[in-house]
Specification:
Layout (H helix, E strand, L loop, with lengths): L7 E5 L4 H18 L5 E5 L5 H15 L4 H10 E5 L5 H11 L5 E5 L6 H11 L6 E5 L6 H12 L7 E4 L6 H12 L12 E9 L8 H26 L8 H14 L8 E6 L17 E6 L11 E6 L6 E8 L17 E7 L2 E10 L7 E10 L7 H10 L9 H11 L9 E4 L30
Helix pairs in contact: 1-2, 1-3, 1-10, 4-5, 6-11, 8-9, 8-11, 9-11
């Protein structure tokens, strides 16, 4: 396995939205913070020039709100532009020439997956794939067979250890904090199991619709868009055992073991919803059965988690935009103080966005003579204006060959096996009102007397 840092970065799709919104700001931050000093080759088929690419990069970084003139001047000096069709051999000949003396390039495919085959073959035939790495963006297929076919396309040229699949959620500071909190503190481990945990709830809510991306959303839906990747990754970090050692493979192996232990989801354990008005969106079919909301229950068949339900809820046009995890502990075996002891069990709450909050819910005695209780939260709030963006962190790690935060092929396939039974119209789509918490039927996913946690119930302090 090649552990040397890459000595050039090539990104295909240099004129696209992803480059504008994420890649250029990340590269600017990498120059400013870490002294990135390797050639950066943008490849596109737009008939652009280097001057146009530099102008586009400047506009992107200014729009991101963190422009630094000296850092941009350095970034601009590193930029190289190659224009050409992704299916033309001349494009890759020109790319190999633009790489100059670079011997360990890393190629970032910020393009449609349908073009991956042409690009990796072009890289191979030109010699630009030799001793190189490859970064690809999700979606990694639409289902298990298409994911396996995509892997076969990539593996025809690049070995698995040279492929870096980006799920930007794993690069978020809040998600990193969740992993750190679990394994840097000894007080959690004795209770982090079926003996003490009653259930775990994960909510990923957005208070907006598809924002003009109806055609795209028709091809994915909520389960493919966020459940199969982002939220299963969060579950893995919550439920995995501690990795053996600090090597990147150790972390990936534990995530894989956890994914393989998740029982394929039964369609009876899913409620799919679609917000009223979705079918009027441009690009959406008049009789669309694509879900914009999903609530589901899943189980992990290990000794640690047997019989502990994991509840997942994700959707658009919900009351707020927030991602939150609540780990509910079991109630004490006896209520020593009677009905006034407190109605809510202890819990841990992880707010992953928009702010980062870790809190523990407890019950304390109210002031007064009587033994009455009231709930309180012990809150640790993390706020930093200098933290790395997910793309800055992930691109930096990929350049240095660190695979810890990337998705391996076997883990990706295991995640598809979990959701495979519920893809498509395996259950009816129920209409819900924008601004609600989805179809009322989603309440049946959680066993009574428990209910869905409302992320609005606890507010982080100002």
């Amino acid at each position: 396995m090649n552990t040397e840092s890459s000595d050039a970065l090539v990104f295909f799709g240099a004129t696209g939205d992803l480059a504008y919104k994420k890649i250029f700001p990340a590269l600017h931050a990498m120059v400013r913070r870490d002294g990135l000093d390797i050639p950066i080759v943008g490849v596109a088929r737009e008939g652009w020039s280097l001057d146009l690419l530099r102008r586009r990069a400047k506009e992107s970084i200014e729009a991101a709100g963190d422009f630094d003139a000296s850092s941009f001047e350095k970034l601009a000096s590193l930029l190289v532009y190659v224009d050409g069709d992704y299916t033309a051999a001349a494009t890759y000949t020109n790319l190999r020439r633009a790489l100059g003396a670079a011997q360990r390039p890393i190629h970032y495919l910020a393009i449609q997956p349908s073009m991956f085959g042409a690009v990796v073959q072009g890289l191979s035939k030109s010699g630009a794939a030799e001793n190189a790495r490859l970064i690809v963006e999700k979606p990694f297929g639409r289902d298990l067979p298409s994911a396996q076919a995509l892997d076969a396309t990539l593996h025809a040229v690049f070995p698995e250890e040279s492929i870096f699949r980006i799920d930007h959620y794993l690069g978020k500071e809040a998600v990193q904090n969740l992993l750190y909190f679990r394994f840097a503190n000894t007080f959690l481990e004795p209770i982090w199991n079926r003996q003490y945990i009653n259930d775990i709830q994960i909510t990923m809510a957005e208070n907006f619709g598809v924002q003009g991306r109806g055609k795209f959303y028709e091809e994915v839906g909520a389960i493919r868009d966020v459940v199969q990747n982002h939220l299963l990754q969060v579950i893995a970090l919550l439920a995995m055992d501690a990795p053996v050692g600090q090597a990147p493979l150790a972390m990936q192996n534990e995530r894989l073991r956890l994914f393989r232990a998740i029982r394929p989801i039964d369609p009876k354990d899913v409620v799919r919803g679609q917000f009223r008005g979705y079918r009027a969106e441009p690009g959406v079919a008049a009789n669309s059965q694509v879900e914009t909301f999903a609530a589901l229950r899943l189980h992990i068949d290990t000794w640690r988690w047997a019989d502990v339900p994991f509840y997942v809820r994700a959707g658009k046009n919900l009351p707020i935009t927030a991602t939150e995890v609540v780990v509910n502990l079991k109630c004490p075996p006896l209520s020593i103080f009677g009905a006034q002891q407190g109605s809510r069990p202890n819990y841990f709450r992880f707010r992953l966005s928009p702010e980062v909050v870790i809190s523990a819910g407890a019950t304390v005695k109210k002031i007064g003579e009587e033994m009455h209780g009231e709930p309180v939260e012990l809150i640790a709030r993390h706020e930093s204006r200098i933290e790395k963006s997910p793309y800055e962190r992930l691109l930096t790690n990929a350049i240095h060959g660190d695979t810890t935060l990337f998705t391996r092929d076997d883990s990706m396939e295991a995640a598809w096996r979990v959701v495979e039974p519920i893809l498509g119209s395996t259950s009816p789509v129920i209409e819900y009102e924008p601004g609600s918490w989805g179809p009322p039927e989603s309440a049946r996913i959680i066993a009574e007397p428990d209910t869905w946690h409302d992320p609005r119930a606890e507010k982080a302090p100002p």
